[in-house]
Design brief:
Blueprint (H helix, E strand, L loop, with lengths): L1 H6 L6 H7 L2 H22 L7 H25 L10 H15 L3 H14 L4 H13 L3 H13 L7 H15 L30
Amino acid sequence: MRALRTLTLLWPGLPWLWLRGSVSGLVLALAFAVVLDTAILSTWVWSEFVESPLVTGLWAATAAIWGVATASAAAAFPTAIRTGHDAAADALFSAARDAYLARDWLTAETKLRSLLVLRPTDGEAQLLLATLLRRVGRLREARFELEKLARSDAGGPWRAVIARELARIAAAASPLPDTAAGATAIPAAGSAIPTAAPAARAA
């Protein structure tokens, strides 16, 4: 898995798509494919119809896009291609979890977002952040985070939990029956914390 994550750095946009589930990563990956295909076709298929300076320009643009995107991805994902857990990130997750259990939503969210800057592919932290957003009523943001996690490589072990959280968001967004109006069920403090990761925090 580490080798595959490292190889994503070689194609512009792919790290953001695979590791973060970013739609903009998909757009960049497709745009680079179009530029590369055009350069190849202009060089070996349409060589009689495309002038040499234009072909040179296409290859220069392809190389520039690849170089900038690869350097940017390597800078943005320094820890994404490592499989281990560092002490600082684990300490942030523990602090965020404790704040979540204490219903200190602001502190928990702040710790989780700081953790995701250090380790952007931490699926457990992404899931806990989405769960927190759902519990405080920020349903659109919670759905966005869950859908992004589902598209990413880090969401693999969490498919069932993501589906359950999305179902809860859909239920919360639906109008309540008249008989239940005014009655809001508040789950136990630790009930929404993800618990089904195959190897989460094992290291």
